[in-house]
Please model this.
Amino acid sequence: MHDINLEALLEETKRIVLDAGEIIRDHWDKPKDIRRKGRIDLVTRTDLAVEAFCKEKLAEILPGCSFLAEESSAKTAPGPLTWIIDPLDGTTNYAHGLPFVCTSVALWDGEKPILGVVNAPMLNECFTAARGRGARLNGKPIRVSEEGDPVAALVATGFPYDIERYLEQVVRRFKKILANVQGMRRVGAAALDMAYVACGRFEAFYESALNPWDVAAGWLLVTEAGGTVTQFAPDAPYVLGAENLLASNGALHGALGALLLEGGGRD
Model:
């Protein structure tokens, strides 16, 4: 990876993801051709179009790379030098006309994400990060919040598609966190949730059963903005494919992790 200019590559990646956002904008008020991958897991023609566009253009700027993309990858683990892509995080929001949708793209070097872009085209917000170079929103540096009191914290969560399997734990944890923080939100797009932690809108985000494309770019955004990402157990480092994820401003990480473990164990 020493021969890759990360800053230049980030700018090229950002340009591609912003162009992909124009596909989402163009499709917004048109028929969406909604299909089901599962009982509550949707895919639209926009997911497919954005993914195809991103793969084509990203292959041009980094020849020889591989892809781990939500709609076209059979595997769920990236190899070395892999683009990890969620073309339309928040597809259910998109299907219902809610603007909380984004495209998430990260470059994986075999061990960690080193570059990430999360673009929310209907909100005109593009979050970017490169390893060791900080995180930005529309070009301006961002940092996690400094709030250290759970009672003053706004925490986000999400619900797995396989909700029947996780329902009891989801409810127990939700009750435990809700009773100890200022408020909770459910945006419906994990990449945006993590971007909002990175810029200080949320103090934390947690969820189970996330896929690599849900979290790779957001993981980098949070850590580059000064936050912390682990599994629910604060002493368990996060790895792609882990059963659960807790992203926070760092100041609240131990307290929230303890609440999550009290609410449902380590899964």
Observations:
- Residues 6-27 form the longest helix (22 residues).
- The radius of gyration is 17 Å.
- The mean pLDDT is 92.
